[in-house]
Design brief:
With 119 residues, the protein is α+β, with helices and mostly antiparallel strands. The chain contains three helices and five strands, in the order E-H-H-E-E-E-E-H. Helix content is 38%, strand content 25%.
Length: 119
């Protein structure tokens, strides 16, 4: 039996997605084309489709470096356009797999969250 996969945006990811969607909507009204924000929104939507097709699409983050703020047992990273990152966790049962998108962030914020330093 194939389990259905759902993708749900939570908290910071949901806020960032809505902000980006509103900004792109405004840019479309202003007849702007292919802005960085439009590319990022397209990238997010494309990766969400990839995750729906294969919940294990992203790069698995080792348990020992998962930031405590996420409070999850597993964490996956997907690289987006312009060095942005999307983080998600996978939960499931016999019927359904749910991928919770926890965060969408630029590379600098990603480095801070994971404690990486610039060289």
């Amino acid at each position: 039996m194939n389990r259905k996969t759902r993708v749900v945006l939570l908290d910071e990811a949901d806020v960032e997605f809505k902000r980006l969607n509103d900004l792109v909507g405004q840019q479309i009204k202003e007849n702007k084309q292919n802005t960085d924000e439009m590319q990022l929104l397209r990238s997010i939507k494309q990766k969400v489709d990839f995750i729906k097709a294969n919940p294990f699409y992203g790069d698995n983050i080792p348990k020992e470096i998962i930031p405590e703020k996420y409070n999850v047992q597993n964490l996956w990273r997907v690289e987006l356009t312009n060095y942005w990152r999307m983080l998600y966790t996978i939960k499931g049962d016999q019927v359904e797999i749910i991928c919770f998108i926890l965060d969408i962030m630029d590379h600098d914020r990603y480095n801070k969250v994971f404690g990486y330093k610039k060289r």
